[in-house]
Amino acid sequence: MSLVIHQEEAAPILSGLAELRELPEWFRDRQRAAWKQFESLPNPTRKDQTWRFSNVGLLDLAKFKVGGTLTEEERDAILERSRGLDEVAGRMVFAGDQLIERDVISDQLKKRGVIFQSLERAMVEHADLFRKHFMSQPATLGSARFAALHQALVSSGTFLYVPHGVEIELPVEIFHWLNGENASVFPHLLLVTDELAKVTVIEHFCSLDPQSPGFACGVNDLVAGPGAKVTYVCAQNWAENVVALQMNTTTVDHDASAMSLNLHIGSRYSRFESLSRLSGEGGRSDLLAVAVAKHQQEFDARTLQDHISPHTASDLLYKNALDDRARTIFGGLIRVEPHAHFTDAYQKVRNLLLSDDAEANSMPGLEILADNVRCTHGATSGQIDEDELFYLHARGIPTKIAQRLIVTGFLDEAIQRLNHPAISSHLQRLIEEKFAA
Amino acid sequence: MKTETSAVNIDRSKGDFFYPEAHVRDAGAGLSERTVRYISDVKEDPDWVREFRLRGLKTFLEKPLPTHWASKDLEAIDFDKIRYYLSPGTEAKRSWDEVPDDIKRTFERLGIPEQERKFLAGVEAQFDSEAVYSNIKKAVGEQGVIFVGSTEGLKNYPEIFRKWFGKVIPIADNKFSALNSAVFSGGSFIYVPPGVKVKHPLQAYFRINAENFGQFERTLIIADEGSEVTYMEGCTAPKFNTPTLHSAVVELVALKGAKIQYITVQNWASNVFNLVTKRGLAQENAEVKWIDCNIGSRLTMKYPSVIMKGRKARGEVLSIALANDGQHQDTGAKMIHAADETTSNIISKSISIGKGRATYRGLVHVPKHLKHCKNNTECDALLINATSRTDTYPAITVRGTGNAVQHEASVSQVSAEQIFYMQQRGLSEAQAMSLSVNGFVNDLVRQFPMEYSVELKRLIELEMEGSVG
After folding, report:
1. Per-position DSSP letters for A59-120, written without gaps between them
2. Which of B374, B389, B413 is the last residue of a domain?
3. What are the tens digits of pLDDT across the range B330-379?
4. Do residue B433 and residue B403 come from a single domain?
5. Where do the structural domains in chain A lie, given as residue ranges?
6. Domain presence at residue B4
7. Fewer beta carbons under 10 A from the terminal one: N or C of chain A?
8. What is the pLDDT of residues B53-97, one digit of tens each?
9. pLDDT, tens digit, for every residue of B188-225?
10. Which residue, among A181, A119, A115, A191, has the nearest Cα to A150 in the 3D structure?
11. How far is the C-alpha of A245 from the C-alpha of A301, rounded, in Å?
12. CB contacts, 8 Å: A335 with chain B
C-alpha cells in the first residue's frame, strides 16, 4: 500500500510559480516579486568575479522539478535514517520541503518563550519577527539570482526564536531530505536570538537515494542578538549527483559571538556562501569549514567577513582535502568598513592535495578601509608530508591507513574548534564513512 | 594609538617642470586606422610590423575595458583626446654632446648627471616617444651586447627581434597590450649574447613632456644562454591637468641558464594612467626577477609576470607601492609554473597614505602533473591614515600532489610604541613616521642597486611629508 501524503504534482522549476500553497497573501506577493527578480537576473558566468573558477555549467536548472509526492515507505525510510545526535533539545525532519516529523522542545523551554515551529506557521503567528529578519540581507556574494529563486519557491523551513537570557544547552537538530529523481528542495532556517541567549543548531542535508540527481537551494538567516552565542553546524551530505547552493547570513550584534562550521561530504557541486556581518562592538564571528572532496566533486566556498563596527573580531579556518579529480574553490574576503577601527580579522585556507588531478583554487582577499586594524590571511596548498608518512610506516601502519589518519588529523583541527564533543564525533563519523566508501 | 590626520599635500615640485614642446611629427589626437598607418609611415615600418599594428588596433577596439574586475576609474580615459604619436624629430643619438641642451637639463633634474655615465654601461634615455639618446659603453658593445631603441632593433636586427617580439605578450593578451601593439614607439631592444655577463646595469629614463600624450614604449630583452643582465627603468613626468596615458609592453626572454633583472621606479605625475603589461619567459635554469616600485600616477595597473617554462626556472617579483591622495596603486604579480622544479617568490609591500588606495592582485598557477614546484607569496600593507585603503586579491590554483604553495598577507599600521620610542629620543612625529615607513620597506629596498635605493628612500620621505601631525 502506498499512501500519498503530499498531493502536489511535480513541475519543472523553470515553468513558473504554482499558486497552490497555503501561505499568507503578503508572502505570496513577495514570492511573485522574487520570481520576477529571478527571471530578470542573468545566469552567472565564469567572468563574474564572484564565480571565478566555478563550474557554472552545472547550474542548468532545466531538468529539476519542484513539488512531488512522498510514499509512506519513503517516509518511513527517511525517518529511520534520520539519525543524528543522541541527545537534542528539539528536532525537525523535512522531506522534499515537507515537515514530516517534529520532536517538540521541552515545556520548560516553551514556558520561557522559546519558539520552535515551521516557517509557514511563524509567518502567521510571529509575522513581525519573521518580516524583520527573513532574508533581510541581500545576497551579495554572487548568488542574488538563486536567493531570489529560493524566496520564490520556499514553502517550509524552521523558525527558532530564543528569548532574552535563555540558554538551550542541547543542540537543535534539523534534517532536510531530497527524494526522487531530479527533485529539488529550498531549505530555510530563520534563527533569531535575543540578548544573552545561547543556542546550537545542526542541520543535516541528505538524499534518500544515493544515485538520484537533485537540486538544493537553501538560505539561512542567523541572527545573534546582543551578547548572544549562536553555533551553527551544517553537515552537507547530499547524493553525489546533487547540485547545491546554500546562502547563509549571520548578523552579529554587540558582544555576541557566532560560530559556524560547514562540513562538505556529498553533492556533485556545492556552493556555500557565508556572510558574517559584525554590526556591534565586541562582536565575534568564527567561520569554519571542512571539505572532503573526491571523484568529480566541486566545493565552492565564498565568504565575507564584514566588519561594520569597531572592536570586532573574526576568524576563518577552511580546510579542504582533495582526492581524485575533485576541485575546491575558496573565495573569501575580509572587509573592514570605514571607521571600523580595532578590527582583528583572520582568514586561513589550507588545501591538502591527495591526487595529481585534484585542483585547489584559493582567493583570500582583503579590503581594508580603516587604518587601526590587524588583518592577516594565509593560504597554503600542499600534500602529505613524506616524513609523517614514513613515521607511520615505521610503526607498521600501511600506506592507505596512514594517509587516512593524516588527512583526518588535518581536518580535525577545524572540527575541534567547535568545542562540542557530540557534534564533533558525529562529523568525524561522516568523514570516516566517506573514506571507507 | 589613533592619529587623526589631515589630507596630504604632495610636493611634486621636483617633477613639475617642462620645456616648450617642439614636436616635428605629430599624429594628432584620437586613434583610428589612419593614426596607425601614419605611425607606420613615419617610422618606415616593414610590412609585418604594419600588419601587427593593425591587428593590435582591431583587438583594442574589440576588447571591452576590464572594469568587471578593475577600477571604474579606467572609464575616465578619453581615448579620443590622447595623442598617440609624436616625436621630436631627432634620430637616436650616439654621444652625449649631440643631445639638445634643454633635454640635458631635464635629465639633470631627474638625477642623471653626466658624470654618472661612467657607472652606467649605456644610457637609453627616452624623451617622449623617440629615443633621443642611446649610448652603450664601448666595452659592452665589444661583448656583442645590442642595446638600441625598439624601432632600430626591429629594423637592424630582424632575425633576433622578430623571433620573440609579441611572443611573450601576444597582441590580444589584454586591451592595453593591444593598444600598445597598435601604436608602440620607443622603448629598448636588448640582446645579450651567450655567456656574457653585463656587469653594469643598463639604464633608461622615460619621461612624458607633452600634454595629453600617451607613451607607448615597447621593450624586448633577450638574454641568451648563460648570460646575465640588469635593466633599470625610472620615470617621472611633469604635471598636467588632463589625464595622460602610459601603456607600455615589456617582454623578457631568459634562455637556458640566463638571468634577467628588471628594475622599475615609477613616479609618474598624479594624472597619469599607468597601464603596463610586463612578462618574462624563463627557460631551463633561467631566472627572471622584477623589482617594481610604484610611487606616482593616478591609477597604476601592473602585474609583472613570469612564465617558468623550463625545468628549475625561477621567477621573482619584489614590489613596493606607495599610494597617496587621489592615487590607486593596483599592482601585484603573476607566476605561471609550466615545468617541474620551478620556484617563484612574490614579496609585496604597500603603503597607503591619506586617501590613497593600494591593491595587491596576484595569480599563482601550478597546473597538474608538475613536480616539486614551489611558490611563496608575502603581502604586507601599511595604512597611515584613517582614510587610507588597502586591498588584497590573490588567486591561487594548485593541481596535483607534488607542489607547495603558500600565501600570507597582513595589514597593519605603524606601531604606536615605535613612534613613541622615537619621539622620546627627540624626533618629530613626522620624522618618526617616515623612519618607520622606510623601515617597513627596508628589507626590499636593500635589494635595489645603490643609487635606486637612495632615490627611493628620498621619494618615500617626500611622500610622507605632511601625512602626520
Report:
1. G--TT-EE-----HHHHHHHHHH----SS-SEEEEEETTEEEEEEPPPHHHHHTT-EEEEHH
2. B413
3. 999 999 999 999 999 999 999 999 899 999 999 999 987 888 999 999 99
4. no
5. 11-279, 384-437
6. no
7. N
8. 999 999 999 999 998 888 999 999 989 888 887 665 444 444 556
9. 899 999 999 988 778 765 444 444 455 888 999 999 99
10. A119
11. 10
12. none
Q: Quick check: is B386 in a domain?
A: yes
pLDDT at B386 (0 to 100):
86
Choose among B290, B299, B363, B361: nearest CA to B329. Answer: B299
Contact between chains at B398 and A47 (C-beta distance less than 8 A):
no
The answer to whether B413 contacts chain A (CB < 8 Å) is: yes
In this complex, is the C-beta atom of B385 within 8 Å of any C-beta atom belonging to chain A?
yes
- Chain mean pLDDT for chain A: 93
User: Is B126 in the same domain as B89?
Assistant: yes
Residue B8 lies in a domain: no
**Containing domain of residue B281, as a range?**
18-413
**A46 to chain B: closest CA residue:** B68
ipTM score: 0.84
Give the best residue of A311, A381, A388 to mutate against chain B (max B CB count within 10 A).
Answer: A381
Q: Which residues of A touch B68 (CB under 8 A)?
A: 47-49
Q: Let me know whether B384 and B469 are in one domain.
A: no
Residue B424 and residue B405 share a domain? no
- Residue B208 shares a structural domain with residue B263: yes
Alpha carbon of A369: minimum distance to chain B alpha carbons (Å):
4
Q: Is residue B3 part of a domain?
A: no
Same domain? For B276 and B318 the reply is: yes
Residue with cell 643582465: B229
**CA proximity to B278, closest of B269, B267, B291:** B291
* Whether residue B145 is found in the same domain as residue B219: yes
Residues B311, B452: one domain? no
Tell me, what's the pLDDT at B417? 87
Of A359, A365, A368, the CB nearest to B399: A359
A362 vs B68: CB contact, 8 Å cut-off? no
What residue of A is the nearest CA neighbor of B374?
Answer: A382
Please report, for residues B172, B228, B285, B412, the alpha-carbon distance to residue B61 in angstroms, rounded to integers and kept in the order given: 11, 38, 39, 42
Number of domains in chain B: 2
Among all residues of chain B, which has the CA nearest to that of A52?
A: B395
Q: Do A371 and B368 touch (CB under 8 A)?
A: no
Whether the pTM exceeds 0.90: the reply is no
Binary contact (B407, A362; C-beta < 8 A)? yes
- Cell numbers at residue A197, please? 541567549
Residue B184 has pLDDT above 60, yes or no: yes
Q: What is the pLDDT of residue A1?
A: 31
Distance CA(A431)–CA(A292), nearest Å, equals 7
Chain A partners within 8 Å of B416 (Cβ): none
**Which of 53-82 (B) contact A at CB < 8 A?**
68-69
Closest-CA distance, B364 to chain A, in angstroms, reads 10
